[in-house]
Amino acid sequence: MQAALAPREGGAFHVQHLPFLLAFVYWAVSAWLVARLLLSRRFEHDGLGVARADAYANWVAAVLPRLLACLALLPVTLLTAQINMLMGVVTGLLALLILTALVLRSRFGDVTEKNSYGSFDFMGPVSRQAIWGMLALSATLLAGLWIRSAGLAAALLWVLGAVALRAWDARRTWPDTDAEQGQALREEARGNWRVFSLSLLAGAAMLALIGLSDDEVDLARRLGLPALLLFALGSWTVFGGFVLTYLPLSRRWIGLATWLPPLLFVAFASRETHFVAQRDLDLAVPPIEVVRETSSERFRRWVAQVPPGDPVYVAAAVGGASRAAFWTGIVLAAIEDDARRADGRRFAADLFAISSISGGSLGATAFVAGVAQYPDTAACVKEPDAVSTSSRERCLSARLEGFLERDFLAPVVGRMLFPDLFIRFAPVPQSLALRADRSLGLEEAWAGDWRRQPGGGRSVVDWNAPISALYAGAERADRPQLPLLLLNTVRLEDGQRFVQSFARPDWPGVTDLFDAAFDTRRLSLAQAVHNSARFPYVSPGAMVLGAPGPATPPGGDPVEMGRLGDGGYHEGSGAATLADLLERLAAEKLLRKLPGKSGLWACAAGWGDSGAGEACAAPSPVVALILDSAPSSFPADYVRGLDGRQLEERPGVAPGSTPLPEVLAPVFGGLSTRTQLSLLSQRRLSRLVGNDPSALIELRMPLWRETADDPKTRERCDGRRVQPSMNWYLDDCSRARLAQAARGGPGTDTGSTLAEQALLNNLQRLRRQVLGAATPAAGSTR
């Protein structure tokens, strides 16, 4: 909500706020209208009986619908004002207008001026037209967010249905009326221009909106998350109040709303629609078949192209949705841009592997894909601030920023609230149910956004292709260059850690998702990233199926091998997998400890049989990077201090009291245990690479202060005192503060906090290493 409604660089009001205002009206009017219809008619099986006091019953029938409209408007107005004051004022004025219209109205359709309980026996032409428009809007959104072409058909039927309903009401014989009453209703239908015109206009607008949208993802983004939420609330109100309550009661049945949805949900609860790698890959060129090597074998070939003495980098990207993706991608890309500007320097080519979790996997994959897609080292100019914007946009960091700043939340929530929810209550064919999977909201967004990147139309990187295509298309067979992606995920049933990578993980304690036991041949790059970022309830756990084999009966169901969830279920930093990798390379004697030096070392020319340090003329130190976007304070969240000292114990901070401990203490206990496991994994990584200040470089987003904003960030944040949010859509202010921190920290103010100074020092350490101007720290053994 914050990212969608917050002021943007162009001003406090944006064109996407218009659907939100329309949905705001729809939500309020639907709450009022459904209540008004239910209270304006007495039903045989409504259980209310005969009112003992007509005055009181009439007062309730008049006041309750308006009260429900007020309750629908008030919290949304207050929340909007808290995020965007100008939008809050606009929303408040609109709410006041709606309430005034409802209070001062003389009649709505066939509801009489007295607004009495049980004032009519059937719906008149105006009410019928209003209900048709609301139901048609819900159906159009359901169809359009499911399959775009179906949405176009639904919008067209909406328009045609509104015309046909008006014509029918103007000619029909109304039930239970005499000739005079019937003629009056027909005249009312012919004179009903206001509600009819609104319905017709809304249907035409939806038809145009879906027609202008490229696909379901684009439609969800054009509507925006706040509008989708309010449209969903309004749709459930109309469907539950009218379809499941009013219609059956008016036909002398019992109401369906209290028992039919639970019954249908139980009936279809066992339906599985979230699968791993069960969709056909939509590829223009068939993927290249490759023989997978182990991570050790890849390192043996990869290290040969590292210049002697250059550091060998490995990185761990902590999870955190779009915040982590943006931070990971921008920080790595900014360092790569620095290396490209400096003649003869390199960073991505010296980065062997990135172990990532959740949103960090999206940032890491975007970085590797960007290096493969845009290898031109001359594209990023040496002095970006002194040239045109078009020149700056050719830098890798600017390209990734354009990709990672997109709204990834609206597409997945749109599918979750409409088609994915609908199939939980309806007997839909499995082929259509699979298209309703909300996982597609993220995966299709990533693939489509990358394809629409400048230069992204080339077939170098296709997020709909397997991971192997990323490496096979950008690397020479004899010279691996791209960083190795280690995308972590977890099997929810037993907590087993799975790794998705181009190379086979050859260390114990993890399972290779591309093992022959699993049917994952059709796993795309986007799906692999999503497997690492499946955090319920936004992203569902996905079922892995066993590969068909000789024991599989013909036509039999494949074996279910468990559901995959977010990699952060095991530990949230990716450091555990990275430490496993380094230990394996050390066991294979590809990394070694040297006498008188700390940490692990590699040798581009290969180690001699003796294993002594003299066997390598110019050994390369192993440098580990930790990229963490969670705003943190120093030193409690750091493995090391400013001077490189180990912080084996967290500072003595008394834990805060847990609210509702009987209920929430187990939840907080599970989360805090996972956090401690992440910290222990990072300390394990620290012990492996050594205690030198430049061996483990922690790039953590500091706890941000408003006074740290530079002029550009200050303009975009406008004094907002919020930390970058953790969701799949970052607002302008969050992106500006993350980007500023990635460039080196706070602007010129009275001083820096320890966390800000730590980030600045570590960025400078890393840049000095990459640019070849490293000055050893005091006491350094490197």
Report on this model:
By secondary structure, the protein is an alpha/beta fold. The chain is 48% helix and 8% strand. The chain has 27 helices and ten strands. Strands 1, 2, 3, 4, 5, 6, 7, 8, 9 and 10 form a ten-stranded mixed beta sheet that branches. The longest helix is centred in the N-terminal third of the chain and has 30 residues, at 54-83.
Structural class: alpha/beta
- Which radius of gyration do the C-alpha atoms yield? 30 Å
Unreliable segments of 5+ consecutive residues: 106-116, 384-388, 647-654, 774-780
Count of helical stretches: 27
Average pLDDT score: 81
Percent of residues in helices: 40-55%
Structure summary, number of beta strands: 10
Beta-strand content: 5-15%
Distance between the termini: 49 Å
Main beta sheet = 10 strands, mixed
- Quick one: overall form? elongated
